[in-house]
Design goal:
The chain is of the alpha+beta class and 359 residues long. It has helices at residues 2-15, 25-32, 57-63, 76-87, 101-110, 122-127, 132-155, 162-174, 237-256, 263-276; strands at residues 19-22, 40-43, 48-53, 68-72, 91-95, 115-119, 180-181, 186-189, 210-215, 217-219, 222-223, 226-232, 288-290, 297-301, 314-317, 320-323, 327-330, 333-337, 342-344, 353-354. It is built from ten helices and 20 strands.
């Protein structure tokens, strides 16, 4: 944590800031270890403070020993103003993508002597490169998701509904080490699979239905993200063609991953495969995104991405093809960018058909 705070202080110096206020929960956790739902970090060149209310006093002492607890006993803004006055702060950065207009205006009223400097992604840019401790949690989260997917493939049978599938995944992950899900599981069968973020319904899965399942586990605050697509029992020739096209696009992208490659260029590798197969207009989302304390974080790997891959980034590779009224196929892995390529973290099987009946 101390090293992370020092990197923030380097950013303060480069931007001529006296302090940075940090209110985003994931950024608070990354810098301090504090997992509570309310609090503001105040980082200066000399001090690291965590202002929160009575509910979290003991939690701060346990989780954030490198931070000085500032006890909030009234309006939060009054406590922050007291610290600003005590520290003599004049030029203070804040997370412009997090702080609401109401909160910003309140800070202006209560601390009129402060020049408020909007900043964006100071901490998020640090979070993109994962350290060994973070990777331990991510790898465990991936393992739990992989095992849940394998379990589901063995458990699935005709007539199970999308809601039942989602619940089976959640129960398995929660009873096998996940503190919670990374996000609500996406389960789309038949035509529902054409919605890339389908909400599970009471639709039962039938023989030959295309099925898209996207889910992940959370371990020590870190997420995993995994998608597999398949049919139960049998698949049409059209489905097999589309499935293998998506797999080829994913494999091409994974082979291209390396430090220094632009996220937009990586997206282009997979998109070219899908376009050449005649489905370019049916791949409407980006190829991938970073995963860590948030299920979607930097770097991005889409057509509009301005990010460049670096060693230590963890990103998804998830091309897809979606045909309204028919269904969809998406295959998603998480990869760790290494010195000369990538390490594929997700290991659950990629198969277009799950046998039924069982042998």
């Amino acid at each position: 944590m101390k090293e992370r705070v020092e990197r923030v202080r380097t950013a303060l110096a480069s931007q001529g800031l006296d302090a940075l206020f940090i209110a985003k929960a994931e950024n608070r956790r990354y810098l301090s270890g504090f997992t509570g739902s309310a609090g503001v970090l105040i980082i200066t060149p000399e001090e690291a403070l965590l202002a929160t209310d009575f509910r979290y006093y003991e939690q701060v002492k346990m989780q954030a020993p490198d931070f000085t607890l500032v006890e909030v006993t009234g309006p939060v803004v009054k406590t922050l103003a007291e610290q600003v006055s005590r520290l003599g702060l004049r030029r203070v950065g804040f997370e412009s993508h997090v702080v609401t207009v109401d909160t910003y205006q309140e800070w202006q009223r209560e601390m009129p002597s402060v020049e408020w400097v909007p900043t964006k992604n100071i901490v998020e840019s640090l979070r993109m490169v994962k350290d060994a401790q973070e990777m331990e949690a991510i790898i465990e989260a991936v393992r739990i998701a992989d095992e849940a997917m394998v379990h589901l493939m063995e458990w699935l049978r005709p007539g199970k509904t999308e809601r039942e599938i989602a619940w089976e995944l959640e129960v398995h992950m929660r009873t096998h080490g996940a503190e919670k899900l990374s996000f609500a599981a996406i389960v789309g069968s038949g035509p529902n699979g054409a919605m890339s973020h389908a909400v599970p319904s009471d639709r039962p899965v039938g023989i030959g239905d295309p099925l898209v399942i996207d889910m992940g586990a959370m371990v020590r605050g870190y997420c995993s993200d995994l998608t597999r697509s398949f049919c139960l029992g049998e698949a049409s020739e059209e489905y097999l063609t589309i499935w293998h096209t998506v797999l080829e696009a994913q494999q091409a992208a994974e082979a291209a991953v390396r430090p220094g490659l632009a996220g937009a260029a990586l997206d282009g590798v997979a998109r070219q495969v899908i376009e050449q197969a005649g489905y370019g207009e049916k791949f409407g989302h980006g190829l991938g995104h970073g995963v860590g304390l948030e299920i979607h974080e930097g770097p991005s790997a889409g057509r509009l991405s301005e990010d460049t891959l670096a060693e230590g980034h963890v990103v998804t590779i998830e091309p897809g093809i979606y045909l309204p009224g028919w269904g969809g196929v998406r295959i998603e892995d998480m990869v760790l960018v290494t010195e000369d390529g990538c390490r594929i973290l997700t290991q659950s099987p990629k198969v277009p058909v799950i046998p039924w009946p069982r042998d």
